[in-house]
Amino acid sequence: MPFSIVFFLFFKAVLNIFLDWSKKVYFCTMTSQTEENYLKAIFKLSDDEQNSVSTSAISNAINTSAASVTDMLKRLSEKGFINYAKYKGVTLTKKGQKLATNLTRKHRIWEVFLVNKLQFSWDEVHAMAEELEHIKSNELINRLDKYLGFPRFDPHGDPIPDADGNIQTRKQILLVEIGEGEQGILVGVNEHTTPFLQYLDRLELGLGAHVSVIEKFAFDNSMKIKLNKEKELTLTSEVSKNLFVQKQ
């Protein structure tokens, strides 16, 4: 067999091996927006479920079927982003944790920019930040962070990871857990939906507000509060269990 043909066959075999390897590398490193949204949801849920997250919790957070969640978890597991075993829950790998933390950082910095610099209200920015967080440039988000003065918390009171992935924590509890006669400063919300945030705006119950618990009602766990030492309000348990305060 002529040397040129042997060389061609050898080159073709090497090229096929390289292409197969490249596809595997691309598959394992590139992520779609949907995959990134799953990782971010798992990251957020892991605090509530002590690191191991159930598929049902993910299904509720993503608002999709359990079957679709299972398919996606298998894909993320194959890519090395999560540890997944059927009926045993899900945890993020170091690779998955890094990506999810970075996505969360981008999302929350964009929210600060939209509220502080473009004067959007806090109930408008979540959907916009959901789109902007998928911009790949870390240099852009690092410069935006610097431009904003390195904010530590977003407009909803959630902590913003720094460039190294460190997250600042603070002592906070749910308003529903505060007793009669106790008081605190509203520092965050556990519910980010537009109707809930707009409802808080109508009550003039924003971050930084001073709250004193006047009376709690055992019948439905609602409470009467004094807002900013002036106005009295009655809050349902559904509201008070979604507000974070720092006790004073």
Describe this protein's structure.
With 248 residues, the chain is α+β, with helices and mostly antiparallel strands. It folds into three domains: 33-92, Winged helix-like DNA-binding domain superfamily/Winged helix DNA-binding domain (Arc Repressor Mutant, subunit A, Orthogonal Bundle), CATH 1.10.10; 101-147, Diphtheria Toxin Repressor, domain 2 (Orthogonal Bundle), CATH 1.10.60.10; 173-247, Ferrous iron transport protein A (FeoA) (SH3 type barrels, Roll). 48% of the residues lie in helices and 16% in strands. It contains nine helices and eight strands. The chain has helices at 3-29, 33-48, 55-62, 66-78, 94-116, 125-132, 138-147, 194-203, 237-240, and strands at residues 82-84, 90-92, 173-174, 183-189, 210-217, 222-227, 231-235, 243-247. The strands form two sheets. It has a six-stranded antiparallel β-sheet with strand order 3-8-4-5-6-7. Strands 1-2 form a two-stranded antiparallel ribbon. Strand 5 (210-217) and strand 6 form a beta hairpin. The longest helix is centred in the N-terminal third of the chain and has 27 residues, at 3-29. The model is unreliable at 6-12 and 18-28 (pLDDT under 50).
